[in-house]
Model the fold of this input.
Amino acid sequence: MKKFLSILMLLLSTSAVAEAPKPGAEFDAVAQPITTDVAGKIEVMEVFWYGCIHCYQMEAPLNAWVKKLPADVYFKRMPALPRADWAPMAKAFFAMETLGVQEKLHSQLFEAVHKQKVLNPTDEKAAIEWVTKASGMDKLKVEQAFKSFTINTNLNRAAQIFRSSGATGVPSLVIDGKYITSSTMSGGNAEALKVADYIIDNVRKDKATQTTKAPAAKK
Done:
């Protein structure tokens, strides 16, 4: 019986190894390479929209996953901007970032839209009112953050990143500016994070190989 169990475990292990995520299915290359922020680290970027229920459902598992990331991996968020009516929530993200309250209010904004249902994600005026109340800041200061030149620059960047990523929906995860996976591609939120782990591991191995092959500096 013990021998049978040992063989069964070996077969299961071998099957798991054989069923690695497939390029073109569970993940793919981005449409165009995206410049990452931190040199020497592997970047994971979540492309999301506050109005997306699937992004809201991804929050808990994603946050738990991020807390366990190794030191050579850097995580960031980027609001998706494939169309004009998603702009109010992208503005809210960048305005909160400018005001220094993005980390504090990020989850609360998701809750306001999906759990409390007190905020229409396509209504910019409502977004300004919500950020003002939630942050306790002066409304004029919040309005200025929503309408600043920096916001317009960030919106253009968000739109460009969405196009370059080749994303067809959200939430999507872009790894090292080169690869993309999503809940839809991989079959669920937990599966998307497992695919991200797989890609991170392979990117790390590839970087190590490149470093080993690099020619020694001339003396």
About this structure: Confidence is low (pLDDT under 50) at residues 1-18. The beta strands are 27-29, 42-48, 73-79, 172-175, 179-182.
